[in-house]
Amino acid sequence: MNIVMMGVQGSGKGTQSKLLAEKLHLPHVSTGDLFRDNLGRGTELGKRAKEFMDKGELVTDELVCDMVADRLSQPDAAGGCILDGFPRSSFQLAALETMKPVEHAVLLELDDEMALARLGGRSECGKCQIIYGANRPPKAAGTCDECGGSLKVRGDDQDTEAIRKRIEMYHKEIDALVRFYDWKGVLHRVSAAGTVEEIQAAVLAVLGR
Ligand code: AMP
User: Fold this and answer.
1) What is the CATH number of the domain that holds 16?
2) Beta carbon of 53 within 6 Å of any ligand 1 atom
């Protein structure tokens, strides 16, 4: 089953994608994570993506689609996957439909002011990448509940103007995708205003799980 997760930054899209992937035993394919991994390893792809990521811009469609096609050709994705951060343009949407037609698209809805407030307080475990925030505070400040790793604020979450720019960009990107998935009859709208557990229950309910 191929599921696309959509939602403004701060809606809990990454967290919900991970939880859903565990629950359904499907790989979690996050293009942001794939790029960060390539950046960290200093690969050619990482070097080419860096110039766009540093400016808070989208990486070119061709580069993203090549990376995703490669990831989706791995054996673990044969039975489907949870896509997070992809597609983000009409080009990517068309590419995905030819690779893995989407059966469910979940839109996590959150108003912009709430998204801004959540992003301001967000931190990520440097070891296992679990994301903490107002709706999921760590038990001990600065330390990951799961693995004891140190929590850090992601570089692109530090500047309010940059966050606003990303939210604006999100609205521009998402409109055509939402219209397409709605037209295809696979769109599910879920409120992202609750706790991690409440949102997870709502996502599973719309997927009939
Ligand atoms: P994210 O973690 O999803 O916010 O992604 C971090 C950065 O990776 C974005 O700001 C983009 O530069 C790049 N990126 C991730 N996914 C995509 C995508 N589908 N298309 C283009 N660029 C992407």
Assistant:
1) 3.40.50.300
2) yes
